[in-house]
C-alpha cells in the first residue's frame, strides 16, 4: 500500500486528472440506481421537454429523463466495455504467451488464424456476425472480445518472444519447470507493464467500438440506456440548437481522454525515463 502511494505521488497532473475522472465514472456506474432520479426506462413526461428543475437535462424522444439515461449509460456502456476488454485480454494474452513459449507449429497455426481475423475490417466483421447471431449483451461481449483479442495476441506474443530466450527462462526449463509455471512465474511478470498499458488503450477502443455499434443499431439494445444510441435517438435536437445529444458524446470523449492520460503515465514509468 505504501509503495502504491509513493508511486501515485510521482504522477503528473494529467494522470491525476485521468484517475479522478475514472473513479467518478466507476462510482456513477456502480451507484446508478441510487443516483438516478428515475428508473432507466420510465417515461416521465412529454418528448423533448427542455431543461428544468424537474428534468435537469430534459427528456428524450420518448419522454424519458435524459439525466437518468446518462447515468445508466455509464453503467451499461462502461460495464460492458470493461467486461469485453477483460475477456479479450484473457483470450489474447493466454494464447499469445502460449504461442511464444511453445513456438513451432502451434505458434504458426495461432499466428496465421490471427492474421486472417485481423485482415478483415473489424467494424464490418462485427456488423456481419452480430447480424447473424443477434445483438444480446452476451453475443456483443463475445464477438467484440474475440475480435479484439487478436490485437492483444500480437502484443503478448511480441513482448514474450524477447523474454523466452533469456537465460533465466532457459534455467527454469533445465530445472524441469512445466509450461504453466514458466508462463505464470517467469514470462508474465516481465511482460506485464506493456500489457497493463495496452489494457487501457484496448478499453478505449472497445468503449468507442460499442458506442459506434449502438449508434448503428447493433450495439446495446433498447430499452437499455447507452451513450451511442442516445446520440442517435436525439440527434434531431441539434438542428434546434439544443446541445443535449452532445452530452453522451462528451461523456465518451472525456473517459477516453482520461484513460489515455493514465496510460501515457504508465508507459512513461515502464520505459524507465526520468523526464
Output the keywords:
275 residues; mainly alpha; MetI-like fold
Question: What does this protein structure show overall?
Answer:
The radius of gyration is 22 Å and the shape is elongated. It has helices spanning 2-9, 13-30, 32-35, 66-102, 104-119, 122-133, 137-164, 167-174, 179-216, 227-233, 246-271. The longest helix is centred in the C-terminal third of the chain and has 38 residues, at 179-216. It has eleven helices and no strands. α4 runs antiparallel to α9 (179-216) and α7 packs antiparallel against α9. The model has no long low-confidence stretch (mean pLDDT 84). With 275 residues, it is mainly α. It has one domain (62-271): MetI-like fold. Helix content is 73%, strand content 0%.
CATH topology: MetI-like fold
- CATH architecture heading: Orthogonal Bundle
Q: What is the CA–CA distance across the termini? A: 25 Å
Q: Give me the number of helical elements.
A: 11
β-sheet strand percentage: under 5%
**Extended strand count:** 0
N-to-C SSE string, H for helix and E for strand: HHHHHHHHHHH
Query: What proportion of the residues is helical, as a percent range?
Result: over 70%
Amino acid at each position: 500500500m505504501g509503495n502504491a502511494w509513493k508511486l501515485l505521488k510521482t504522477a503528473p497532473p494529467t494522470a491525476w486528472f485521468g484517475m479522478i475522472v475514472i473513479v467518478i465514472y466507476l462510482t456513477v456506474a456502480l451507484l446508478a440506481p441510487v443516483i438516478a432520479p428515475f428508473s432507466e426506462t420510465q417515461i416521465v413526461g412529454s418528448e423533448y421537454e427542455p431543461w428544468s428543475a424537474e428534468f435537469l437535462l430534459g427528456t428524450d424522444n420518448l419522454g424519458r429523463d435524459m439525466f437518468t439515461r446518462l447515468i445508466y449509460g455509464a453503467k451499461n456502456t462502461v460495464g460492458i466495455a470493461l467486461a469485453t476488454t477483460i475477456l479479450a485480454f484473457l483470450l489474447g494474452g493466454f494464447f499469445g504467451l502460449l504461442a511464444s513459449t511453445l513456438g513451432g507449429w502451434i505458434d504458426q497455426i495461432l499466428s496465421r488464424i490471427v492474421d486472417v481475423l485481423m485482415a478483415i475490417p473489424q467494424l464490418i466483421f462485427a456488423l456481419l456476425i452480430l447480424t447473424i447471431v443477434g445483438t444480446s449483451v452476451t453475443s456483443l461481449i463475445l464477438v467484440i472480445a474475440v475480435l479484439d483479442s487478436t490485437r492483444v495476441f500480437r502484443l503478448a506474443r511480441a513482448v514474450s518472444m524477447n523474454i523466452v530466450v533469456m537465460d533465466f527462462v532457459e534455467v527454469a526449463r533445465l530445472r524441469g519447470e512445466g509450461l504453466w509455471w514458466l508462463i505464470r512465474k517467469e514470462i508474465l511478470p516481465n511482460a506485464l507493464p506493456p500489457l497493463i498499458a495496452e489494457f487501457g488503450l484496448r478499453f478505449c477502443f472497445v468503449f468507442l467500438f460499442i458506442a459506434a455499434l449502438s449508434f448503428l443499431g447493433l450495439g446495446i439494445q433498447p430499452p437499455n440506456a447507452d451513450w451511442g444510441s442516445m446520440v442517435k435517438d436525439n440527434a434531431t435536437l441539434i438542428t434546434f440548437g439544443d446541445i443535449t445529444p452532445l452530452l453522451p458524446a462528451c461523456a465518451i470523449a472525456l473517459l477516453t481522454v482520461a484513460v489515455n492520460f493514465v496510460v501515457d503515465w504508465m508507459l512513461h514509468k515502464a520505459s524507465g525515463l526520468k523526464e
